[in-house]
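Purpose: get a first structural picture of the assembly so the mutagenesis plan has something to point at.
Setup: three entries, given in the order below. No constraints added.
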Amino acid sequence: MPPVFALVDCNNFYVSCEQVFNPGLIGKPVVVLSNNDGCIIARSNEAKSIGIQMGIPLFKIRDIIKAHEVQVYSSNYALYGDMSQRVIEILSEFTHDVEIYSIDEAFLDLSGFKKRNLTDYGYSIRSKIRKWTGIPVSIGIAETKTLAKIANRIAKRSEKTDGVLDLTGSSYQDRALAITAVEDVWGVGQSYSGFLKSNGINNALQLRNAPDSLIKKEMGIVGLRILQELRGISCYPLEQYPPPQKEITVSRSFKHPIEDIADISEAIAAYASKGAEKLRKARLEANILVVFLMTNPYKRQARYFNMKTMRFPFSISDTSELIKYAHTGLNEIYKKGYLYKKAGVIFRDLSSDNHTQMTLFDYKKGEQAKEVMQAFDRINKRFGSDSVRYAATGSTRNQKWKTVFQKRSPSYTTNWDQLPEVL
DNA sequence: TCTGGGGTCCTAGGACCC
DNA sequence: TCTGGGGTCCTAGGACCC
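Result (structure tokens, whole complex):
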């Protein structure tokens, strides 16, 4: 018995979140920006239809913004994360077989619901999410995740589907594949679509019917799996319990380039500290730390990129230790005379925090440090993040490396002081 | 002037070992 | 002409995802 997957995808998620709390934005061109208000990362349908591209830098479309009075928002992840959780909670009322795929997408296993009308089931999911959160979603249903993605894409665009499309056992399946461009197939990016098109494969139907040997040669085993999935043979099961995380990154671009290592050291300390908090929250410890530093790749000025990998004698999640290592690494890779644009830390080789190997002497020290970290995390949880922080992360007066959000909406759902008022 | 951030998987090649 | 072979571990780079 082949499985049945549903992909539930929130439409224009970040923009929809803004619209829920500011209904005046509905029907208008609206965009949400990346960190430092750099690029467009979400668009309302109206913004899409006036030609604003995903990922484009804001400064390149200033005139379109002005001409069409596009409403512009900085990203507000506290709000989006909270809304995402609400959507997931509703989904799990419909089935326990939920895989949270990203902040705005989830796969469901509907294999047990085959006797029902799956389209109708989709409609009831969709309308409940709409009613309880205000977020519009689209739902694609099919025998594999890749086909469910395709169904979802059509459900999102076609008026006729009204947001839900079930392709299981459907005579419409070939047609659906034929109207899906090859670059819109899950797993086909820029490089692969270039190769496929140069071989006359322009849509998903042609890809499904392509010879295995051709695909294998250029796209390897990943390509073969895409073929299987398009043919209705599932290669990617539902991952209800995701495997443990393999790495944790904290990195930021600087709004303006920075030269001085003192400023970069502050930034790196803040990133290491944030990463350490993420480690402890996931009950993990790191064995490897990578620090990296780079100039602006978009500029023609002198370029520099370097990174340093360090392995610890035993696994760590202690903030002050991690800051120390990060600074050691930074001092090795920093070179005077460059204008730096981005820096970050990566933690790798993560292990669970309950079986650290230490000598008895180190053990005592370790227990003390652990208690300090627990108190640190408790305070920040209770009074808001950064209520306490390490001196190495710098004075609040130094704004040189801080990320900018000039057009941020209030944190309507996560901060008591910013609840929306009903007048 | 102004260009995000955080992930995963696969593959090839080097180091090292027996 | 021909220069051992095979396994493991690690890393870098490429490709993709949202």
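The mean pLDDT of chain A is 94.
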